[in-house]
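so my prof wants the structure for this chain in the tokens format not the other one, which i didnt know existed until like an hour ago. anyway here's the sequence
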Amino acid sequence: MASLSEVIGGLDEQGRGPLYQQLQRALRQAIADNRLAADEALPPERDIATEFGVSRITVRKALDALADEGLVTRRQGAGTFVAARVEKSFSKLSSFSEDMVSRGRRPHSAWLRRSDGRVTPEESMILDLSPGTPVYRFNRIRYADDAPMALEYSTVPGFALPSKDAVDSSLYDALDRHGCRPVRALQRLRAVLFNLEQAELLAVAPGAPGLLIERRGFLRDGRAVEFTQSYYRGDAYDFVAELNTGVS
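here's what i got, hopefully its the right format
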């Protein structure tokens, strides 16, 4: 098996920038080029330090920076691993939590806001609700393991849930428990650049590329039951769809 230095190259004490930044750049490029594969374990910090002739603090700073970028993940008791990009299928109506669990990742959320109120004119048009209709709003940062993956802003009609506190970890689980999980959805995807606030929440650089998914979910009787805007990190998510000609 090739050593890490054979995979990513060496460091130059006279080179550009501090050694931890050189190591960070070399590892980032190796991940981008797939020389370090998704879910591949990196050597322990002490071994990397010995191999490159640097301090463990230097190695830790480089790995900390890569973890903040979402390029590596730390698993307690197991070590540091190259983060796996997540593939989201457009052909399956599933929640973020279900997608992460199916890929062996641990989903969790940090709440930005959880509130109730009256429908706005925009929400009224999107969800086909009368003016003044009660709605619930759920704004969260969605994580896979310890990496922030997406910002999620959801609006749900008041008839679908008993209260704003009905949602814990998964919106779709809560809707399912109350008989209002959507059975079909319309989705739109477009590229975006993260503004300063979004970038800080997702631990990426301002102006970094992302993907915005807007989804309207519908019940079997045709009523809209969900409007969600999800801002996904472009460096961590791939969206896939199965296509066919429709000819049997």
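also thought this was worth mentioning. Helices lie at 4-8, 19-32, 45-52, 56-68, 96-102, 121-127, 171-177, 196-202.
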